[in-house]
Design goal:
Three copies of one chain form a homotrimer. By secondary structure, chain A is of the alpha/beta class. The first copy, chain A, folds into two domains: 364 residues, Metal-dependent hydrolases (TIM Barrel, Alpha-Beta Barrel), CATH 3.20.20; 99 residues, Orthogonal Bundle (uronate isomerase, domain 2, chain A). Chain A contains 20 helices and eleven strands. A four-stranded parallel β-sheet of chain A has the order 6-7-10-11, with helices on one face. The first copy, chain A, has a three-stranded parallel β-sheet with strand order 1-2-4. A two-stranded parallel ribbon of chain A has the order 3-5. The two termini of chain A are 40 Å apart. Chains A and B meet through helix 1, helix 5, helix 15, strand 9 and helix 18 of A and helix 2, helix 16, helix 17, helix 18 and helix 19 of B.
C-alpha cells in the first residue's frame, strides 16, 4: 500500500465516502490484482437464489413508507446490536405481541439508530447501510446524532419517488433473478400477481415447509391438516407425502427451483413405511416427544431429498440455530428479534442416513450451510469434497461478513475446491442492502483470489474465470436458475 | 515493508533490541497507520482490572529477592515450557508438598532458564520477558547460557535498589489502577495497609469466592463455616447468601468493583428457595456428588449475578479449564504448576438459566472469558451482541498472545462490534511483565485497526477513537473504575 | 509485491511454470526474508519419517507402469474430488470388490483426469501434481483436455527409462531416509531385500499393529492368532503382549524407529492384569461389543507406550477419522477410496489414563496428530506444551496444505513453541509427490517465519536456525533417525 495515498484519504468522522478499493488487500501489488479481478465481475447481474424479500413489494410496487421501516425494523442485525447496549426494542418500534404501545414516530426511531450507529464500527452491517445510503440515496455524510435529521429527510424524500419503488430498484440493482422464501401453505398469490402484471423482473418462490415439518411448532397438527387439505390429500403418511409433492409442483410451476429447510440440527433419518406411518400419527398428537419431533424432522429431510430426485428442486439445509434463546423477548415480541444463537453442529453422523440412501446420486443437489465454523474444515469440506450430491452454501448469517467469507474460503477450498461451493446468496429481508451485500461478497472473493495469485497458487487468468463463477456462474448453475 | 530497512536490522543471536515497529503489519502503508494509532495510545496509563499480583508487595514495599524468584518461580508459562522439554520442576526451585529439597540457588535456576530460553521462540512469554529485561533492567543482550550470569548480576543488582521496589515500579509502569484477586475469606489487611500508608497508588481487591462456592474442593464445608462465621451468619442457605452479601460489601468498601469466578464449566442454574436450601445442605456433606457440586456452582453464578444488580460489582466468569490434569505433578507440587488444560466449553445452553433471569438487565455486567476459541464466533459474539448484560473479556491465558488477540478480534468484531468487549487485562502474577503485556495488547489492537483502515472498513479518525477505547476507556468503564 | 513483476508473470491458462516465489508472502520485504530462509533449507535432504510408499518398489526397482497408475489410482485426494463432481470410480480404473470390469485403459483414465483438472484449483493436490510434472517430467504446459495426450506420452515415455525407476528417483529426490508403514503381520521381506541388495537408500519400516489391535475389524481373532503364532506366543494376554514385543523387536532390527496407530478416537486406558486378561478374552469373541472394542484399543495405546519406554520406538497416534463413511462405496470398492471423514476429537480426557501412567517420562515420545483443528489451540498445544512425553505431529491429511500448515503454526506456536513439534512428514503413497510436498512445507514454514521476522517477533538469525530445524532437524531427532 502506498503511504501517500493513505495520507490523502483520512476523512473526518463526518464524511461518508466509499473508497473504490475497500475490502481489497493493502499491498499495492495484490490490490492491483484484486482490482482487475473485481473490474471483470463488478457489473455482472445479481443472482439472489436465497433471501427473504417480500413478494408483495414486487406485486404491489408501492413506495416504502419511511427510512426507519426500511433500515431498522426489518433488520435483526441492526436492532440486536442496539439492544445489546441497552436500547429497549419498544423504542425501536418493534411491535409487541400484547399490543402495548411502542415508538411510532419513524423520525425518533431513526434518531436513536443514528445516535448508536458507532456501535456498528467493524461490522458488515455498517458497510451495507453506508453503501446503501451512499449509492442508492446519494448520502455523503456519515450517520450521526447530528446528521440524523438531514439524512432522514433526504432518504424520506427519495423514497416517495417513482424511481424508488421496489420494481425500479430491482432494475437499478441489476438483479437477474431473486428467490423469496415461502411457507408451504402460502398460495403464492403475490408471485402470481407479479407474473400476471407483465413486469419482466424474475421473482421466484422457494419451498420452505418448516411449519408442516417441525412437530414442535405451535399449531403443527392444524397446519398439517390445512396442508393436506390444500392438496386434497388424506390425513395419512402417504397423503402427507402426496401433499408435499403437490405443493412442490405448485411452487415449481411458479418458478421455484429450490426448497429450503431450517432445522435445529442436521439430523436425517431413513425409516421404512410402517415406522414412518407410526411416527406420523405420533407427531400429530399434542404431547409429541422431543425425540419424535427430531426424528420426524430428520425423516422429512430424507423424504424431501427423494422428492428432489423426482422434481429437480435443489435442496438447502440451514441447521444449528438455537431459536428464540431469550425467553422474555420471545414472550414479548415473538420470533426473529435477534435472539437466535448458533450451537455446535454435527454433520458427519447426522447426514449419514440421507447420504447412505441418496448421497451418491449426482442428480441430487443438497446445499449445506453452517453456523458452526468448526465444521468447515473438519466435516463440511471433506463431505462436499466426496459426495456427488453435496455442495457447500456460502458463509451464512453471522458469517456473511468479510472475515467470515475469508475463513469460509480458507477452510474449505484446499479440500473441496471452488466447484463444490455455490456462490453467494444474501439471505436478507433488508432489500436495500442487497447490492451492497453482493458487492461485498465479490470484493472479498476477488481479494481471496488475488492473494492466491500473488502467492502463485493460481494464475490470474484462471482467477478471472473463478471470480466470474463465484460472483455469478456457480449460483446460476447450482440453483438451476 | 522496506527491504533495505530489513537488511539493516538483522542482529546476531546475541543482541537484545526491541524494534519500535514490533508486532505491526509489515506493509509500509499499513505499518504507518499502525504507528500513528499506537503513538496516540502508547502512553495512556495502565488499567489492570483483573490480575494476580500480591497486595503484600504494595503493602510492605520490600525489594524483590532475586531474578529467579521474579521471572521463573511465579510464572507457569515459563516452567511449563521447560518441563515439557524434560526439565524437572525441582531443578527450577518449585516447592514440593512433601518438603523434599529442591534447587535453592537462584543463580543455578536462572542458568537453567537461560539454557532453555530458545524454547520460547515464537511465544509471547519471550516477548514479555525480553521487553521487561530491556526496558526495566536495561539489558542489551539476549538471554543465553553464555550471557546468563551477566544478566543475572545486572538484574540482581538493580532489584536491590529503591527504584525497583514494588511501589516505585508501579509508578514507573504508569499504572492507574490495578486489581488483585482475593479469596472471599481474605481479610484484605494488605489492602488496608496500602490505603493507610498514604501511598497514592490505586490497588483494589476483587471478590473471588471459588473456595466457598465449589463443593468439590478439599475443606469446602470448613471454609463455608469460616465464611459464614466472619459475617456472623448462621449455617443456612439464607445465612450463606447473607455472608456473601456481607463479604462483597466488605470488599467493595476497600475499592473492589468486581467479582471473579473460575468454574470448570459455564453452567448456571436458577432454583427456588426450597430446592436451594436442600442443595446447600447436601453440598456440605463429605460425600457430595459430582452433579450436586456442579449444580451448586451453577446456582451460585445466578445468585452472584443477583447480588451484582444490588451492589454494582461487575461479574467475571472464566470457565473451561481442566485443572491439575497431571495427577503426579499435582500430588507432588499442588495446583497451579502448569497442568491446567482447556476443554470444550458450552455457553449457549449453560448460561440460559442466568440469562433468562437477568440477561436483559443492562445494570448487570457479566464478562465472559473462554479457553475454547470455537465459542468466539459461534456462541460468545452472538450472545454478547444480543444480551444487554453480557460483555466479552479479552483473549485469555493461552490466547493472551499476538495471534490469539488477532483471532479474538477477527472472530468477534463482525458480530458483537468493539463496544461489547471490555479492553485488555493482563491476568498475571508476573508483575514485571505487566507493561510489556499491555504494550503487546495495544500494538496488536492498533495493528488490527490499521488493517481495517487500510482496507477502508474503518476511517482512521474513528480507529483512533477505538484505539483509545481498547487501550484504556473500555476497561475503565466496563469495570466501573 | 512489485506490480511490474506481477504484470510480467500472468501466463495463459495453458502454460505450466513454477514461480520461484510461490507460497511466499506477497509483500516485497517479507518475501525477501522468506527467500533467504528458504534458500538456506531448500536443498536439505528429505527426512520422510511417516508415509505409505510400497517397499516393494525399492526392493524390485521396477519401472512404474503408466501415468494413470502413478498419479490417479493410488491418490485418494485425486479421485475423491473427481467423484464429488459425478465421475464414477469405475471410470478411473478403481478396482471393484466384485470383480466387475472397470476402465482398464490408462490413457482414457488420464484424459478423464485431465478434463477435470480445473477442479483442483486452489488445492494442494494441484500444486503437488504440477510440481511433479514440471520438475520430474519436464512438462511445460498445464494439464487440460487438450494437452492430456501429449503429457501422457511424455510422462509415459520417461517412466520407461532407468532414470525413473524407484531407486533412481529416491536419489534424485534427495531422500535421506523414508519410513514405510507396515502391518504387524508383515514379514518385511521387501525391507530385507532392500538391505540385502547393497543399495544405499535408507528405507525403514514402521510398526503399524492396527489389524491386531482393533477388535472391530473383520478377521480380528484370526489375525491375532496368526500374530501370536509368528512369535510362538500362547493365545493369552501375556502371550499377546509378548508377541507385540517380539514383532517390535523384529521391526526394530530392520531399521524401524517408530510405531503408528490409527484409531477412531484418542481414548487410552490403563487396566490391571486381571481386567486386561478378561478384556482380551472378550474381544476375541465374534460378538465383541463396541465398548469392549474401544476399550481394548484404548488399553493397547497404553501398552504400546509402555513398550516404547523399553525399546525406544517413537509412538504416533492418528485419531479422529470416521472410516468408510460412504457405505455404498465401501461395499463396492473397499476401504481407502476417499470416504474417510474427520470427527470431533477429544484429547484432554482421552489421553489422561496414558499420561497419568507415562506422560511425565521424557524417554517416551508420543506424537499426536489431529483432523479436528479446534484441538490445536484448545488441547494439543497446551498438552504438548506441558507433558514431557508429548509432541505435535504436523498438519495432517486434509490439512497438509498451505493454509492448513499456517493454521497449525498460528494455533500451536504461541503455547507450545516450535520445539514441541516434530517437523514435516508427507504421509503419502503418491511417491512422485514427495519432493513437492516437502518443498511446500518448507516454503510455508519459511513464510510463517518470515512474517514473524518482519513483525520483529523473531530475529532473522534465529529464524534460520528454526527453518533448518523445521525442514530437517526436528524430524530427524524426534523420530530418532
Amino acid at each position: 500500500m502506498n503511504t501517500d495515498e493513505q495520507n490523502e484519504e483520512i476523512p473526518s468522522l463526518g464524511t461518508l465516502a466509499l473508497h473504490p478499493d475497500r475490502l481489497f488487500p493493502p499491498d499495492a501489488g495484490v490490490r492491483a490484482i484484486a482490482r482487475r479481478l473485481y473490474a471483470s465481475v463488478s457489473d455482472l447481474p445479481i443472482i439472489s437464489p436465497h433471501g427473504h424479500t417480500d413478494p408483495r413489494w414486487f406485486a404491489t410496487n408501492k413506495n416504502f413508507s419511511d427510512p426507519a421501516a426500511l433500515f431498522v425494523a426489518p433488520d435483526h442485525y441492526v436492532f440486536r446490536m442496539l439492544y445489546s447496549q441497552g436500547v429497549p426494542l419498544e423504542r425501536l418500534g418493534i411491535r409487541r405481541r400484547d399490543g402495548e404501545p411502542v415508538e411510532a414516530d419513524p423520525r425518533k426511531i431513526w434518531r436513536l439508530f443514528a445516535e448508536h450507529f458507532h456501535l456498528f464500527r467493524g461490522t458488515p452491517t455498517r458497510m451495507w447501510i453506508e453503501q446503501s445510503l451512499h449509492d442508492t440515496f446519494s448520502v455523503r455524510e456519515r450517520l450521526t446524532a447530528e446528521s440524523a435529521d438531514r439524512i432522514y429527510d433526504q432518504v424520506n424524500d427519495l423514497l416517495a419517488r417513482p424511481a424508488f419503488r421496489p420494481r425500479a430498484l430491482f432494475e437499478r440493482f441489476n438483479i437477474d433473478v431473486i428467490a423469496t422464501t415461502d411457507a408451504a401453505l402460502d398460495d403464492l398469490s403475490h408471485h402470481d400477481a407479479i407474473r400476471q402484471s407483465g413486469w419482466s423482473g424474475r421473482v421466484v418462490p422457494t419451498y420452505r415447509p418448516d411449519a408442516v415439518v417441525d412437530p414442535s411448532r405451535k399449531g403443527f397438527a392444524a397446519d398439517v391438516e390445512a396442508f393436506n387439505a390444500i392438496a386434497s390429500a388424506p390425513m395419512t403418511w402417504a397423503g402427507y407425502l402426496e401433499a408435499h409433492r403437490s405443493r412442490r409442483h405448485y411452487f415449481k410451476r411458479r418458478g421455484a427451483t429450490a426448497s429450503d429447510h431450517g432445522h435445529p440440527t442436521a439430523r436425517t433419518a431413513n425409516l421404512d413405511r410402517v415406522a414412518a406411518e407410526q411416527l406420523f400419527s405420533r407427531v400429530l398428537r399434542p404431547d409429541v416427544s422431543t425425540e419424535d419431533a427430531e426424528l420426524f424432522r430428520a425423516l422429512l429431510l430424507t423424504e424431501m431429498a427423494r422428492m428432489s430426485l423426482d422434481d429437480g428442486l435443489v435442496m438447502q439445509l440451514h441447521p444449528g440455530s438455537f431459536r428464540n434463546h431469550n425467553s422474555a423477548l420471545f414472550s414479548a415480541f415473538g420470533p426473529d428479534i435477534g435472539a437466535d444463537i448458533p450451537t455446535p453442529t454435527d454433520y458427519v453422523h447426522a447426514l449419514k442416513p440421507l447420504l447412505d440412501e441418496l448421497g451418491n446420486d449426482p442428480r441430487l443437489t443438497l446445499i449445506l450451510f453452517t453456523l458452526d465454523e468448526t465444521a468447515y474444515s473438519r466435516e463440511l469440506a471433506p463431505l462436499a469434497g466426496h459426495y456427488p450430491a453435496l455442495r457447500l452454501g456460502p458463509a451464512w448469517w453471522f458469517f456473511d461478513s468479510p472475515d467470515g467469507m475469508r475463513r469460509f474460503r480458507e477452510l474449505t477450498t484446499e479440500t473441496a475446491g471452488f466447484y463444490n461451493t455455490v456462490g453467494f446468496n444474501d439471505d436478507t429481508r433488508a432489500y436495500l442492502s442487497i447490492p451492497a451485500r453482493h458487492d461485498m461478497a465479490r470484493r472479498c472473493d476477488c481479494s481471496f483470489l488475488a492473494n492466491r495469485v500473488a502467492e502463485h497458487r493460481l494464475d490470474e487468468a484462471e482467477a478471472q474465470v473463478l471470480a466470474a463463477d463465484l460472483a455469478h456462474g456457480l449460483a446460476k448453475r447450482s440453483y438451476r436458475l
